[in-house]
Design a protein that fits this description.
The protein is an alpha/beta fold. Helix content is about 30%, strand content about 20%. Bound molecules: oxa(dethia)-CoA.
């Protein structure tokens, strides 16, 4: 059986830099608060009307494809992880295929909706397809255009200050090289707390899940016809069309699940925490990453953090951070690289790669 190797990796972040001071001009927040609680100094926002989740993904994918030394037409499967798709449907996978000009009708496209763990989930899916010989050039991307769907009033400040836009991509191929490639992946989920970090409107729930929420929002359904239950004026006026997060609850779960899944994935690969050369955590919050670093006993040069300049880019954060680490020479041939992510769902996942 084959193993899966990373044949090429790339990332793209938009040009526009938005600092904490910029956000403080439109909402009640401060640079000091954001840096102290999250480590974030600035983030990037895509250009309105000019960039989308798909277009940013295409820029990252072009770099990954070039570095893999293949032609776009060689891509036989696309896996696209995002929570901020261009359209509600169809998903970004087919839009990326079109954007890249891949006319190969044999190629398949799959969209993954696993928020912060989406890229690591996608890597595991790709790994299964490659190991069995089903595909030879899988393009895996994680991309987000959060800036288009955030609440820029003070009401949304706890969520809005965290997120940034960007994209990361990998080309994955089979290898028979001894010991190289993806050694193990672990995937987990627990839907108990689905609403603790969620973007529930627009949606077809019609208030069905209200029993799982401590404070039931008023969706304004009373006079609504069926068509208005997906999205209506009341939701728009009351700000119920933005993401919602119970930050402290999510934080507590994250600091528990990150170390758990890292150790579990290492064990599955027959390794220990002492074997980690580089940990790439999902960039949720610098405080979470620092906690995980201490728990794993890692030096500063064994963990990659870039949330300070890009914020939390959800599905894009792991490939952007890994690509930066590779470009900086911090990940070398033969290194044990551990990827880990936790987020909305809750879903969490780990992967161990011998580079
Ligand atoms: O990537 C997916 C997974 N997501 C995460 O892992 C995020 C995990 N959670 C977090 O990172 C943190 O909980 C946050 C950074 C989101 C929030 O930090 P916190 O220390 O947990 O703050 P808090 O939500 O408990 O709020 C503390 C206070 C509140 O004011 P009061 O009630 O004490 O008067 C908030 O209203 O801070 C206030 N606050 C803000 N103040 C200034 C919340 N957001 C802001 C803000 N600027 N942006």
């Amino acid at each position: 059986m084959y193993r899966t190797k990373v044949a090429g990796i790339g990332y793209y972040v938009p040009e526009k830099v938005v600092t904490n001071h910029d956000l403080a001009k439109v909402m009640d927040t401060t640079d000091e608060w954001v840096q102290e609680r999250t480590g974030i100094v600035e983030r990037r926002y895509g250009k309105k009307h000019k960039e989308t989740t798909t277009s940013m993904a295409a820029r990252a994918a072009e770099v990954a494809i070039e570095r893999a030394g293949i032609a776009k037409e060689d891509v036989d499967f696309i896996i696209f992880a995002t929570l901020s798709p261009d359209y509600y449907f169809p998903g970004c996978g087919v839009l990326l295929q079109r954007e890249l000009g891949i006319t190969n009708k044999e190629a398949g496209a799959l969209d993954i909706r696993n928020q912060c763990s989406g890229f690591v989930y996608g890597l595991s899916v790709a790994d299964q397809f490659i190991r069995t010989g089903m595909y030879r050039n899988i393009l895996l991307v994680g991309a987000e255009m959060h800036s288009m769907g955030l609440d820029f009033s003070t009401r949304g400040r706890n969520v809005t200050v965290i997120f940034g836009d960007g994209a990361g991509a990998m080309v994955l191929q089979p290898t028979e090289e001894e010991g190289k490639g993806v050694l193990a992946t672990c995937l987990h989920s627990d839907g108990t707390y689905a609403e603790k970090l969620a973007f529930i409107n627009p949606g077809a729930h019609g208030g069905y899940h209200d029993k799982y929420q401590e404070e039931m929002p008023d969706y304004g359904y009373s006079d609504a016809e069926y068509g208005e239950m997906f999205i209506n004026q009341h939701m728009v006026e009351t700000g119920q069309i933005f993401p919602h997060m119970e930050g402290q609850f999510v934080f507590k779960m994250a600091v528990q699940k990150f170390p758990e899944v890292i150790l579990e994935t290492l064990a599955k690969a027959g390794l220990k925490k002492e074997d980690i050369d580089m940990l790439i955590p999902h960039q949720a919050n610098l405080r979470i990453s620092q906690f995980v670093q201490r728990r794993m006993g890692l030096r500063d040069d064994q963990i990659w953090n870039n949330i300070q300049k890009f914020g939390n880019t959800t599905a894009a954060s792991v490939p952007i951070a890994l690509c930066e680490a590779v470009e900086a020479g911090a990940v070398k041939e033969g290194d044990v690289v551990c990827l880990a992510a936790f987020g909305s769902g809750f879903t969490w996942a780990g992967a161990v790669i011998r580079w």
